[in-house]
Amino acid sequence: MREVLRARAGREPQPSAAMLDRQAVKTTGVGGSRGDDGAKKRRGRKRHLRVDTHGLVWRATGQSAALQDRAAVPPVRDGAAEECPRRQQVGVDQGDTGSGNTWIEAHRGWEVEVVGPPPQPRGVWAPMGAVIDGEALRPKGFRGVLPRRWVIERTFRGCGPSRRLSKDDERLCATSAALIYATMSRLMRRRLAHA
Known about the structure:
Blueprint: H1 2-8, E1 17-26, E2 35-37, E3 42-52, E4 57-64, H2 73-77, H3 80-83, E5 89-92, H4 99-108, E6 111-114, H5 134-137, H6 149-159, H7 163-166, H8 173-194
Parallel strand pairs: 1-5, 5-6
Antiparallel strand pairs: 1-3, 2-3, 3-4
């Protein structure tokens, strides 16, 4: 279905670019692997997705939220060369910086782009005794859409209304990944019906 949707959109069936990201979700007391994600202050699991530029899922995995983001990249990128031989570029967020990107560039020959917000000025130089308008230096609200990051965020949003994915009730991480594939199959069928 992914290849048919891409062909209908006028694209090559195999993508040449992908995005990697994760989503931390709460779990219930059913059991299974879970942990604490200190950065997001959430106890549960993380869902890791690899999507193409249309937001279609090519790989989904789940792990304990205690696992660092950099350590969870290998299961998501496994099999990517066989599934998508055209792939040349991978977009990651700032949580995926480090040795994983070096490995991807060295062993796969892909270009890794770390997508993040533009740097914010940390201060301003002013001569002694000058009056500085602090309000003018303070960042104002929404800083804009990050390039290509909205694609994977839209995929997470599309999976959210599914009752089985709103909270992770599953005992096995593989079951959670299977539910993501099932939800994406339903969404792709809907896109094919409306295309």
